Design the sequence.
């Protein structure tokens, strides 16, 4: 199961070489998330419609290795946008991926952009 | 400075070896050292203290101190599966089993210990094991499958851990101890006797004062022959009789050893070569080997401090106080448990009925606590240990310490915390003081336990100090003048009750509107479901109109289970069901290959449905006349019933009909937490109504109403609200009780806790519900009537609404299901593959 984690290496915006056109923005619930499939990856994409912001991270919660984060509730801790895993309420920053309420390892976050009403998720050369 | 970094080599990647690396990396901010650590086992360091949990869950990752990635990220070169075979101390080089050499500037020997195997004839027989490493455990687990009984040699701490492990494997367990009592190093005679009787009542055979003469068996084990002529039949033997420091490498290198083995170290933890340190169980300091992890961690800290030229103090021995839960029995031993280190007098107290024994040893002048023993209830351990370690003054009647405050005398733990000096060690595994914790709380102005653990490391070892840390954090917040106001989270400066009133009075119907007008930020996983529950309790609108503020169970109207599939529970009011409907459940479960189980609430749960299957499953159930059971909601679950006067020869009222009426009245009612009810047809109480949030028990004259009962981890009997009321009055009072609870409770507070904390308690509740002292009785009934008349089955709405139905899928951009969902068979059904734990 540890191998699953290794499929999600960190991606930073500057190194994106490929933007995957995932789905129309309207397919994502307001102030919530949905799961995007890209090759054999599962990416959770979150629509912070109150603020007009989008975030993406691995769908895998590293605490119990469950493909679930897209079904988690989103929100903020101070200024930090976050998602809470539905299983045990581990919360992760959607900016840094860091676990905010414990010492579970961090998750990988991905850049997201909206163009012409479509949601794009960015991948670097490691996964394009 | 651009000088070359110094090289540290750590031999041994056990708990202490790992802790050394962690502490060094945390403190070596100037990056002065390069670190290489050798471990002979194939995996990174794991938590040996909780090894027995491996018996119930065989995922080795769970026990890891840190994943491999930690070593890489922290620039610690980890070489597992490599044995260091030679130290050349003249040239400062170690050599591994492959013959490769590695130079060092400092060498840290954390080679640990191996199990001490007494020289008894027959220890080499098949079926004899030691209890030390993960590999030992795997061998024990494999062999344990072939036998029915096992004996553990050693009645100390580790031996009893091992006994628990073999008991967990389902084997008949025996403990054999040479001394005349269990845990001879920690417990006195009376405490050990109580522990013995508790363990015996759990079915563990205890054999004391037994010197093993021979382990008998022809190839395979048959039993133990003792010096006194007696014989114990057993098919397996686990030796856990103590430890033997791993000093062979040090001995070969010519380092001096202790008289009975162990690498000799001075107060600076240096061996006889000043470039070589020894820490943990491998070291012998002032004739003592420390077989616990806390002193090992302390040694690691001290060496780190020396290497980084930080303030160091000599290692002067370590308090061996221990607290643990052995097979469900709490045991604590602190300071000098026997009171023999100085003249003292003991005070002891035993309650045989409760199975508790407590002893404290008071110094001769009556001013200090020097140690003690606790069996059966170790809740005062933290406080007593602190008083012992810090020489705190005793109260005028020291017996209060173990008897608790009597005659209305206060026994508030907070008062004790106040008296603790700043330097008092709260977490002995990580050596965190009261000052450290208070400082953290002060700096962050927050008492968040997770953050305290993360930043100070307190409570991350054995976890025994966590309750105390929590009290301390609260205490500190209070001292800082931060009133601990019951606001629901950082996004709303209101209590649940205040938010409830705001929603109702201002007519607010959406979470976003409430957040815009009365909150701040983007909300979170605490306020979203709490507000969702309030909105549902006030307006009773379809909850999926705001699906992303619901917890996952409410968002998908099903209960999430391991693996990310859901379980489905149709309502079966009162537990009454026709054969036709039973058949439908069977057919649906069969068609979708669902695991089925009878629940505790007299209904049937079907597990393993993928999110995309849920609407199809419900379409079939609804067509057969079922409706949602709300097993997923913080809402009414079931009203359990006994069969009552229709069939039962003792029944005095028709409990099934009444249970169905009550369940159908409150179905779908959203509340601060789940609600369970029960109706019994006579005083025999077969429906266990007194363990429910509301229970109704038939009498000759009508019904008795009980409220505030609870099963779960803190079971509590419901309390009698009113006697002998007729059916309509009963319903009216239940309406009022439930609505009053819904309007005033905290988020996720069950009725039992709510009632316990309600000012005025049961009498006040009776005044409100029965005597209508607030004059709100009518209003509460009207509000409940609104809930009853606006009820509709959520699943029916989803099934008939294509837009809602479309939300039930795993991927937003693909029609396929989650490929990671996997099952395995069990007893003719399926269960999810176990998760990483």
Sequence:
């Amino acid at each position: 199961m540890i191998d699953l984690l290794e499929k999600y290496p960190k991606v930073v915006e500057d190194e994106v070489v490929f933007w995957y056109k995932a789905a129309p923005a309207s397919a994502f619930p307001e102030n919530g998330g949905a799961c995007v499939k890209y090759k054999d990856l599962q990416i959770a994409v979150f629509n912070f419609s109150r603020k007009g912001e989008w975030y993406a991270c691995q769908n895998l919660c590293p605490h119990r290795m469950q493909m679930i984060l897209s079904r988690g509730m989103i929100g903020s801790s101070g200024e930090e946008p976050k998602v809470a895993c539905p299983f045990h309420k581990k919360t992760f920053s959607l900016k840094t991926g860091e676990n905010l309420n414990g010492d579970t390892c961090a998750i990988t976050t991905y850049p997201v952009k909206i163009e012409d009403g479509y949601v794009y998720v960015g991948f670097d050369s490691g996964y394009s | 400075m651009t000088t070359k970094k110094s090289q540290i080599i750590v031999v041994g990647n056990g708990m202490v070896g790992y802790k050394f690396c962690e502490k060094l990396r945390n403190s070596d901010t100037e990056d002065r050292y390069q670190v290489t650590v050798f471990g002979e086992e194939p995996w990174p360091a794991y938590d040996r203290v909780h090894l027995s949990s491996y018996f119930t869950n065989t995922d080795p990752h769970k026990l890891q101190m840190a994943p491999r990635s930690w070593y890489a990220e922290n620039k610690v070169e980890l070489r597992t599966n490599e044995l260091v075979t030679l130290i050349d101390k003249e040239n400062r080089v170690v050599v591994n089993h492959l013959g490769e050499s590695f130079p060092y500037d400092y060498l840290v020997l954390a080679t640990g210990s191996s199990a001490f195997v007494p020289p008894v004839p027959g220890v080499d027989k098949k079926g004899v094991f030691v209890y030390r490493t993960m590999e030992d455990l795997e061998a024990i687990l494999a062999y344990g499958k072939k036998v029915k009984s096992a004996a553990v040699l050693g009645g100390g701490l580790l031996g009893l851990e091992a006994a628990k492990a073999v008991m967990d494997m389902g084997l008949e367990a025996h403990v054999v101890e040479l001394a005349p009592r269990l845990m001879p190093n920690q417990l006195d005679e009376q405490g050990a006797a109580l522990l013995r009787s508790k363990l015996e009542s759990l079915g563990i055979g205890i054999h004391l004062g037994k010197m093993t003469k021979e382990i008998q068996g022809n190839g395979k084990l048959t039993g133990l022959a003792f010096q006194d002529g007696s014989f114990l039949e057993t098919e397996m033997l686990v030796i856990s009789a103590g430890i033997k420091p791993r000093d062979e490498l040090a001995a070969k290198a010519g380092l001096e050893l202790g008289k009975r083995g162990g690498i000799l170290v001075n107060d600076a933890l240096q061996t006889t070569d000043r470039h070589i340190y020894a820490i943990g169980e491998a070291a012998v300091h002032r004739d003592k080997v420390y077989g616990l992890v806390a002193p090992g961690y302390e040694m690691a800290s001290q060496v780190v401090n020396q290497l980084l030229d930080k303030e160091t103090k000599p290692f002067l021995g370590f308090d061996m106080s221990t607290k643990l839960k052995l097979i469900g029995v709490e045991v604590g031993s602190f300071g000098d448990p026997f009171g023999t280190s100085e003249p003292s007098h003991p005070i002891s107290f035993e309650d045989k009925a409760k199975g508790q024994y407590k002893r404290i040893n008071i110094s001769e002048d009556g001013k200090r606590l020097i140690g003690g023993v606790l069996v059966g209830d170790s809740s005062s351990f933290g406080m007593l240990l602190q008083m012992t370690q810090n020489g705190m003054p005793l109260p005028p009647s020291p017996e209060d310490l173990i008897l608790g405050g009597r005659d209305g005398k206060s026994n508030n733990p907070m008062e004790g915390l106040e008296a603790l000096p700043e330097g008092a060690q709260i977490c002995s595994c990580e050596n965190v003081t009261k000052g450290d914790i208070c400082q953290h709380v002060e700096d962050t102005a927050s008492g968040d336990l997770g953050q305290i653990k993360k930043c100070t490391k307190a409570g991350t070892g054995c976890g025994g100090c966590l309750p105390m840390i929590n009290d301390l954090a609260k205490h500190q917040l209070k001292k800082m003048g931060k009133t601990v106001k019951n606001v629901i989270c950082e996004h709303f400066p209101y209590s649940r009750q205040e938010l409830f009133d705001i929603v109702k009075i201002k007519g607010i119907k959406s979470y976003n509107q409430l957040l815009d007008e009365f909150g701040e930020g983007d909300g979170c996983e605490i306020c979203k479901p709490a507000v969702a529950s309030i909105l549902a309790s006030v307006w009773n609108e379809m909850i999926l109109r705001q699906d992303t503020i619901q917890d996952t169970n409410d968002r998908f109207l099903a209960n999430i289970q391991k693996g990310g599939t859901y379980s489905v529970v149709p309502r079966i009011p009162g537990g009454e069901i026709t054969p036709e409907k039973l058949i439908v459940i069977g057919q649906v479960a069969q068609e979708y290959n669902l695991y089925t189980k009878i629940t505790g609430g007299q209904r049937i749960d079907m597990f393993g449905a993928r999110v995309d299957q849920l609407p199809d499953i419900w379409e079939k159930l609804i067509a057969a006349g079922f409706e949602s059971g709300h097993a997923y909601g913080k809402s009414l679950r079931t009203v359990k019933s006994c069969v009552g006067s229709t069939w039962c020869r003792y029944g005095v009222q028709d409990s099934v009909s009444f249970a169905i009426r009550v369940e159908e009245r409150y179905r779908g009612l959203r509340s601060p937490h789940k609600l369970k009810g029960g109706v019994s047809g006579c005083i025999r109480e077969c429906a266990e109504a007194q363990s429910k949030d509301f229970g109704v028990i038939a009498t000759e004259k009508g019904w008795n109403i009980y409220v505030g009962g609870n099963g779960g981890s803190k079971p509590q009997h419901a309390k009698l609200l009113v006697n002998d009321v007729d059916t309509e009055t009963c319903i009216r009072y239940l309406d009022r009780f439930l609505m009053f609870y819904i309007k005033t409770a905290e988020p996720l507070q069950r009725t039992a806790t709510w009632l316990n904390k309600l000012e005025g308690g049961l009498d006040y509740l009776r005044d409100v519900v029965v005597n209508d002292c607030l004059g709100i009785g009518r209003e509460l009934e009207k509000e409940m009537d609104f809930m009853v008349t606006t009820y509709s089955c959520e699943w029916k709405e989803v099934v008939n609404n294509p837009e809602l139905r479309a939300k039930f899928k795993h991927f937003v951009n693909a029609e396929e299901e989650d490929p990671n969902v996997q099952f395995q068979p069990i007893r003719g059904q399926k269960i999810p593959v176990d998760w990483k734990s």
User: Anything to note?
Assistant: Residues 405-414 of chain B have pLDDT under 50 and may be disordered. Residues 727-744 of chain B form the longest helix (18 residues).
